[in-house]
């Protein structure tokens, strides 16, 4: 018996990369830094990451192959600092989110130790498209 996968189903044309995207995202999932995802309007979303201790220069946001990637890396603290207790995480991180076709980054901002990344879905002009058949 042959196992039918999502990418090989005959009615789902062009979805063969979807399985790879899901697998890649599942492998990269960890709990740091914590984040929220909100839908702020019908076609807009906001991802908020808790990035206490990270400055704007310590953070980077890129879109690579339909993945939104947020990276954080703090500059090394001087060795002259002696911590009696260190409860604030200062480790580097990389967080990836898969973006659907038509979803674009509208902007990003920091506020009170939070990084906000705003996303917007482009609404197509026409939902129904008529295809002309050429005579062969």
Care to describe what's here?
With 136 residues, the protein is mostly beta strands. The chain has one domain: Immunoglobulin-like. It is 9% helix and 36% strand. The protein contains one helix and seven strands, in the order αβββββββ. The protein has one helix at 16-27, and strands at residues 35-41, 44-50, 59-64, 67-72, 93-98, 103-111, 114-121. The strands form two sheets. A four-stranded antiparallel β-sheet has the order 1-2-7-6, with no helix packed on it. A three-stranded antiparallel β-sheet has the order 3-4-5. A hairpin with a 2-residue loop joins strand 1 (35-41) and strand 2 (44-50). The two termini are 41 Å apart. The mean pLDDT is 84.
- Total E-strand runs: 7
Q: What is the fold-level CATH name, i.e. the topology?
A: Immunoglobulin-like
Helix count, DSSP H or I runs of 4 or more residues = 1
- Beta-strand portion reads 35-45%
Order of secondary-structure elements: HEEEEEEE
Q: Helical percent range?
A: under 10%
Which spans have pLDDT < 50 for at least 5 consecutive residues? none
Outline, from the CA principal axes? elongated
Pfam family, one: HSP20
Organism: Litoreibacter albidus
Protein name: Molecular chaperone IbpA, HSP20 family
Keywords: Stress response
């Amino acid at each position: 018996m042959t196992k039918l996968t999502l990418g090989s189903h005959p009615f789902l044309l062009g979805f063969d990369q979807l399985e790879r995207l899901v697998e890649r995202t599942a492998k990269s999932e960890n709990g740091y830094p914590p984040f929220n995802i909100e839908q702020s309007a019908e076609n807009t979303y906001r991802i908020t990451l808790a990035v206490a201790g990270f400055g704007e220069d310590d953070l980077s946001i890129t879109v690579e192959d339909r993945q939104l990637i947020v990276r954080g890396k703090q500059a090394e603290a001087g060795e002259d600092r002696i911590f009696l207790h260190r409860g604030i995480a200062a480790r580097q991180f990389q967080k990836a989110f898969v973006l659907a076709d038509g979803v674009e980054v509208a902007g990003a901002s920091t506020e009170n130790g939070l990084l906000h990344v705003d996303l917007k879905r482009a609404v197509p002009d026409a939902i129904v498209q008529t295809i002309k058949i050429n005579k062969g």
